[in-house]
């Protein structure tokens, strides 16, 4: 009835487009959060591991193995097949009393469900679809009105970083997710970025330390590789297996001090902060950077002139940064404006890869006196 009223009231002036198709498009957009949450449920429940890789299973058996409610699980599985995660296939129920209303209730893997068998991908889904990051978006209207992000009202903490500090499980999922992103970006970074001219490299906000380990493996000339992150991150590292004597974990805050080095890497870090915070971070680095030192900012490069672009994911990452941490995806021009308030200058901007629907860039900063 509601849909019929909408159809009757909708007119598109000077358009040959069927209004019903436009209405459907609007409802598809509104339905987006539901699709996100069913995928989150699949990841959180780890449904993929209970389905044979090349086989199939009836929902009654699946529910029994997972120790969940069969009816609710079936409806979840049905919704997941609607977005291409799992497939409902022909088969018979092992329980003749089960009525699936002309449905087999038998499920197998799809290409998408096989992907989320990977624990690293599951962690990313659990992070992005979990309550903390989803709830942060609840303040979007007030953020647009005031220009200020009020996370206290949406997630119960002053900042997302405060949440991670107080929620150990969230912290672990976040750190593992960041390692996943690093590994996906790692190949192009290691291939296109020159690390051979530096004695000491600090990966600021390096998390579990994967990137600095890989850099050391490929560059024997480097004397020291420092994985620098908050004390809470360093203490909870699960993958501290590096046997390279040049590798070291150092705990601290880049708002206070950083180890002395001639290269500082900020990969997927500075987009988490607003301009005044980035100025503060660069000022901290300026006190410790060696003569002729560099900063490599490795991050998403927003593409300008994307009017009406519907395929770029960069705009969504930018919005997410805005709602999670008052951050922003920035290009070389943005950093030139920021650097005016520091003693750094943008030396060069490189596009090193295009992956996941956006460009990954390397923005190189040098101290003004070094240029």
UniProtKB/TrEMBL annotation:
InterPro entries with a match to the protein in the record: COMT-like, COMT_C, COMT_dimerisation, SAM-dependent_MTases_sf, WH-like_DNA-bd_sf, WH_DNA-bd_sf
Q: Which CDD domains match?
A: AdoMet_MTases
Query: Domain O-methyltransferase dimerisation, which positions?
Result: 28-90
- Which GO terms fall under molecular function for this chain's record? O-methyltransferase activity; protein dimerization activity
Q: Any idea where the O-methyltransferase C-terminal domain is?
A: 137-344
Give GO BP annotations, semicolon-separated: methylation
- The annotated active site, in chain numbering, is 271
The entry's keywords: Methyltransferase, S-adenosyl-L-methionine, Transferase
Q: What is this protein called in UniProt?
A: O-methyltransferase domain-containing protein
Q: Per the UniProt entry, what species is this protein from, by scientific name? A: Cavenderia fasciculata (Slime mold)
